Amino acid sequence: MNGKNRKDITPGTSVDIVLKADQRSGKLTSGTVKDILTNSSSHPHGIKVRLTDGQVGRVQVIHK
Q1: Domains along the chain?
Q2: For burial by CB atoms within 10 Å, which of 19, 34, 48, 61 has the most?
């Protein structure tokens, strides 16, 4: 599942995000959502979140 819809993501969800520094390479970072930073219901590049370890990026993959 992609991370473009805010309703699909809740704190505690396991996700893969792309960090700002990794946007060119597309390198993904795995983690667990702590906070959802995007206020709108959807975003074409992925919902921005903060992981439990403090890293911030846009959700690319949601793990079920």
Answers
A1: 6-62 (2.30.30)
A2: 48
CB 8 within 8 A of CB 14: no
pTM tops 0.70, yes or no: yes
Question: 11-52, pLDDT tens digit by residue?
Answer: 999 999 999 999 999 999 999 999 999 999 999 999 999 999
Per the structure block, which two tokens stand in for 59? 């959700």
Residue from 2, 5, 1 nearest 43 by CA:
5
